[in-house]
Design a protein that fits this description.
The complex is a heterodimer. By secondary structure, chain A is of the alpha/beta class. Chain A is 51% helix and 11% strand. Chain A has 17 helices and nine strands. The longest helix of chain A is centred in the C-terminal third of the chain and has 23 residues, at 352-374. The two termini of chain A are 35 Å apart. Chain B is α/β, with parallel strands linked by helices. A five-stranded parallel sheet of chain B has the order 2-1-3-4-5, sandwiched between helices. The longest helix of chain B has 13 residues, at 11-23. Classes of the chains: A alpha/beta, B alpha/beta.
């Protein structure tokens, strides 16, 4: 565990019913927004309870610490940081887990530091179920159809097929969790470098499901609007950590997910917030996706021959030969590709970085297919499209079970 | 034998579903609205509920929230003549949403899946 080398606790807070955590790295221009909104939410909805806002940071050189501590709030604030040179959202949150346990928190709410659309209501909706019977609150918000591609094509369908619960935003980045779950997170030994980086979100969701904690999804009322990232940057930054964490947890929790069949919804919280806002558009450059897919195929073909089942590599070859005007990467094939790669990860015959780089190239193909297939769809139609994809992942799970457990 | 509770304000639908689902080997109980729903759920302990949405004095989406508050693990299939309620966020809490049709194939398939669903419990 990364030690906290910096702690600034000017109010001398030693106990707090509610902790709002804001993980950051170089977020000086944006951190005041979630800090102020969290403060308003805590005052408005939890005035009777003790609370603290914690910025858990990676020793940001851009004065994030000063920007946070100088934001005027009624709620006391604490600044925590990893040692200089240690980065990663997961490492920040691990410091938060430990601090939440130390403060005897009953409820912990985490919001991203680059959030622009957060309102005080988010604090209520992520926190309130934790004072009922729930231990993990996952957000439900409207996102543009090209925002959250890793969620839509990898994290959501895999988590749902493996662990059996329909948590729509398993890597959403904004959560609520109970003090009991904070303790489980703090003591959990399933941790590696990917979890310390962007694998943390899927790790938290999976750990909650694996520990059979009561899960609820909560409507945020507004779309998630945050610092824009293009699709390629997201693959470079997030994809390896998310995929490695999913595969690693598959190895660790195989006795759990092999017993799961189909999936179930979760309870939901937070209705009656009026008309939903339309999220800002996210650009998807078809040419870039197509080029990345094509280049990746040439570069990693030997890997595919080693990793993919013979029928699947034939199908991938067939997909690659499709003309651009009717390009499609079928979801059933995509599910089998992911399952083949998970099995290759389990056997450790291929270095994991090389394995994930090869999968990323195929992911570009699936993303291209998703963009083309959903071009004319509205948000609701895309949700139904994603629902169909998830059902195909669930139906294809028998393929995974057979290959994973019988070789 | 799995026990299915049908909640629908149309008598013809209740009779048709009861007949078809009994032929499939299910035990079927029916209710014309949500008035006694929670009591019936407690006393009869159905394995799955097929719930209409637009009923004269009751809204199936609100009834679903009542069910979920107490029975998180009870499968509920929303069954409506309208597909438009799919966009209502409350429908997220349902296991499945099936638009009414004279062909009960999809409903029977979703019922089978809902009853087969397995997640390890504590």
């Amino acid at each position: 565990m990364k030690a906290i080398v910096i702690e600034d606790n000017p109010g001398g807070v030693t106990q707090s019913d509610i902790v709002v955590g804001i993980p950051s790295y170089n977020e000086a221009p944006s951190i005041s927004v979630p800090t102020q909104q969290a403060d308003k939410g805590l005052s408005k909805y939890y005035g009777e309870r003790s609370a603290v806002i914690i910025n858990c940071d990676n020793h940001s050189p851009d004065n994030t610490r000063q920007a946070f501590m100088q934001t005027a709030t009624k709620t006391p604030k604490i600044y925590l940081s990893t040692e200089e040179g240690t980065k990663g959202k997961g490492n920040n949150l691990r410091n938060l887990f430990g601090k939440a346990v130390e403060l005897s928190a009953k409820a912990v709410i985490v919001v991203d530091a680059d959030l622009r659309s957060i309102t005080p209501l988010w604090i209520r909706n992520l926190g309130e179920p934790l004072f009922d019977e729930y231990h993990f609150v996952s957000p439900l918000y409207v996102r543009h159809k090209y925002d959250g591609m890793i969620t839509n094509n990898v994290a959501y369908p895999l988590t749902r097929a493996l662990y059996g619960r329909r948590v729509r935003q398993p890597i959403g980045g904004d959560y609520g969790f109970s003090g009991e779950l904070a303790r489980i997170y703090a003591e959990e030994d399933a941790w590696d470098d990917s979890v310390g980086e962007f694998g943390i979100d899927i790790w938290m969701t999976t750990t909650a499901l694996r520990n059979r904690m009561a899960v609820i999804q909560s409507f945020m009322g507004r779309p998630k609007i945050h610092k824009p990232k293009d699709l390629v940057a997201v693959v470079d930054d997030l994809f390896p950590d998310v995929v490695i964490t999913i595969f690693e947890l598959m190895c660790r929790y195989e006795s759990f997910w092999k017993e799961v069949k189909w999936s179930r919804p979760t309870a939901v919280f937070g209705f009656g917030m009026g008309e939903l806002e339309v999220p800002p558009p996210v650009e998807a450059d078809i040419n870039v996706l197509s080029t990345k897919f094509g280049e990746g195929l040439s570069q990693h073909w030997d890997l595919y021959k080693a990793v993919l089942d013979s029928q699947n590599i034939n199908k991938v070859e067939e997909v690659a030969s499709l003309p651009s005007e009717c390009f499609e990467f079928p979801t059933g094939l995509w599910a089998k590709v992911l399952y083949d790669f998970a099995i290759a990860y389990k056997t450790r015959e291929v270095p994991r970085d090389y394995l994930v780089a090869g999968l990323a190239a195929l992911y570009y193909g699936k993303t291209l297919s998703f963009v083309l297939e959903t071009q004319a769809m509205n948000t609701q139609q895309v949700e139904e499209f994603i629902e169909d994809q998830c059902v195909q992942f669930e139906k294809t799970k028998s393929y995974l079970l057979e290959r994973w457990f019988t070789g | 034998m799995a026990k299915i509770l049908i909640v629908d304000d149309e008598e013809g639908i209740r009779m048709l579903y009861a007949m078809e689902l009994q032929d499939e080997g299910y035990e079927v109980i029916t209710l014309p609205d949500g008035k006694d729903l929670m009591e019936v759920v407690e006393t009869q302990e159905p394995d799955c509920i097929v719930l209409d949405i637009k009923m004269r004095e009751y809204n199936g989406l609100d009834l679903l929230q009542q069910i979920r508050r107490i029975h998180d693990d009870l499968p509920v299939i929303l069954n409506s003549a309208y597909s438009s309620f799919k966009v209502d966020l409350k429908a997220v809490a349902a296991d499945y949403y099936v638009v009414k049709s004279s062909d009960l194939g999809e409903l029977k398939e979703k019922l089978k899946v809902a009853l087969e669903t397995r997640i390890p419990q504590k």
